[in-house]
Design a protein that fits this description.
Length: about 300
């Protein structure tokens, strides 16, 4: 009689192979390489899809909107940074399909409306950004990617009403979050990273730097509350999905941090930067002002797109 573990051998083997395709792009602040075996939560999830002969479903909260700081970005619509990132995610799903024929699907969970009031980006800019993401996905033929946002949950309710429903239903209490920031290093790093982004993105503050930092620390708690709420809502709507994250994640965490493009640090994203094509043809992300010093501006479809190094 064959061993009782035999039926799970193929799903586990394919699950490890699929995770090995993701590992080169793992976004983490941990040191040293990690093997696929060190991600047991994701391995179980992927193996469940394989067992059902179903496409592996990934959810990636992110692609919220462009930073309001024009020293960092080219405008409020997606540009070459997003085009390259979307192409990378679709190509990753294609690679999975080469070793696992049912393939993979990627739901980009655009979270700008979840905290647009806290990051001070107009809701119409967030709508325009998400709509352009969908246009790019269709125009580039990225058939393995879709976009999911609050409109898919609450329809045409006013944006403030959607945020209130989200917060009331899913957000952790402020006291619980403050306690977690005090006791958990990863939550503390996230809090500090978001505070830094909020300070950088505030271009019209009339008061002192210290007053701005105090205000942004308070807003950072709100952003994390809404981000947690958005994550729990996604889990309800995509209960089996493998959760990816654009933030660095420890090895073995329940979320798998993924790096979209080359960047100087683990926190840089296409929506907080501009893309620069180096002279060797490779791409990197950096603040618009810095990229402008290194290269010339290139337009695409009549809009600023990226920089090319001279």
């Amino acid at each position: 009689m064959p061993p009782t573990t035999a039926p799970d051998a193929l799903p586990t083997r394919l699950g490890l192979a699929i995770l090995n395709l993701l590992l080169p792009y793992h976004r983490t602040t941990d040191q040293g390489p990690a093997s696929a075996e060190r991600f047991p939560h994701q391995l179980r999830q992927v193996a469940d899809f394989v067992r059902d002969d179903a496409p592996v479903t990934f959810t990636l909260p992110g692609f919220p909107c462009k930073s309001p700081n024009l020293a960092k970005v080219l405008g409020h619509l997606p540009d070459q940074g997003e085009r390259l990132s979307l192409g990378f995610l679709n190509a990753l799903c294609t690679e999975i399909e080469r070793i696992y024929p049912p393939g993979a699907r990627m739901a980009i969970c655009s979270d700008g409306h979840a905290f647009g009031d806290l990051i001070r980006v107009p809701d119409e800019h967030i709508d325009a950004y998400a709509d352009e993401l969908r246009t790019l996905i269709h125009g580039m033929g990225l058939t393995r990617i879709s976009v999911f946002d609050l409109r898919d949950v609450f329809g045409n309710l006013p944006h403030d009403t959607k945020r209130a429903h989200l917060h009331k239903s899913y957000a952790p209490t402020l006291d619980a979050l403050r306690a977690e920031v005090r006791t958990d290093d990863n939550t503390l790093a996230l809090y500090r990273g978001i505070t830094r982004f909020l300070v950088e993105d505030t271009a019209d503050h009339a008061g002192t730097r210290s007053a701005l930092q105090r205000e942004c620390r308070q807003r950072a708690y709100g952003v994390i509350q809404r981000s947690r709420a958005w994550g729990d809502l996604i889990a309800d709507h995509h209960p089996r999905s493998v959760r990816l994250s654009i933030h660095p994640q420890p090895i073995g965490a329940r979320k798998f941090g993924i790096r979209l493009l080359d960047a100087p640090d683990a926190w840089t994203t296409p929506w907080h930067s501009a893309a620069l094509r180096r002279t060797d043809g490779t791409w990197t992300l950096m603040p618009r002002a810095q990229a402008a010093e290194l290269g010339r501006l290139i337009e695409c479809d009549g809009r600023p797109s990226h920089f090319e190094q001279d």
